[in-house]
Amino acid sequence: MKIVAVVLALVFILAAVIYVVPGGPFGHHPKHSILFGVLALLSLLWLRFQSAGTSAPSSR
Questions:
Q1: Is 1 domain-assigned?
Q2: CA neighbor of 4 nearest in space, from 39, 33, 36, 46
């Protein structure tokens, strides 16, 4: 699942860049680029929670 989170984050970052460029194929849509940026951050947060459970120290 970690790979899925990384791939989604990269795709969302790429989509955010495409939507923020004025001469891009989809035009200039700042609201869409903000949305894709937030989705990329959520994907990275998901990645962080995926790896949090494996490196926890023992309670003894």
A1: no
A2: 46
